[in-house]
Design goal:
Elements lengths: L4 H9 L4 E5 L4 H12 L5 E4 L4 H11 L6 E4 L2 E4 L1 H9 L3 H5 L2
Parallel strand pairs: 1-2
Antiparallel strand pairs: 1-3, 3-4
Helix pairs in contact: 2-4
Length: about 100
């Protein structure tokens, strides 16, 4: 195995799945995505603006009807304010595996 190859394997194992339910015009969604982008985090965006079934899925998973709703490693963390609070408290990077 080449030097550095092992660390690359460990790095790829530490990446956590991030999902964010959004609408196109939501300023809080834009702000939350900007923070994730700044941190270089890949995420799956689910636009619920015109899809009632996806919105119902989001509401069922999150227990909330507002956007954004953010999930890290399958765990609902809330919306934009909660994402920024986790970052301010120094907890977000650990949750993201970065």
């Amino acid at each position: 195995m080449e030097p550095g190859a092992l660390s690359a394997v460990f790095w790829s194992l530490s990446v956590v799945e991030v999902e964010i339910y959004t609408t196109q015009t939501c300023p809080y969604c834009i702000r939350a995505k900007a923070l994730l982008d700044k941190k270089g985090v890949d995420y799956r965006e689910v636009d619920v603006q015109r899809d009632r079934a996806l919105r119902q899925e989001m509401e069922k998973r999150a227990g909330a009807h507002t956007v954004p709703q953010i999930f890290i490693g399958g765990k609902a963390i809330g919306g934009c304010d909660e994402l920024f609070e986790l970052d301010f408290d120094g907890e977000l990077n650990g949750m993201l595996g970065i």
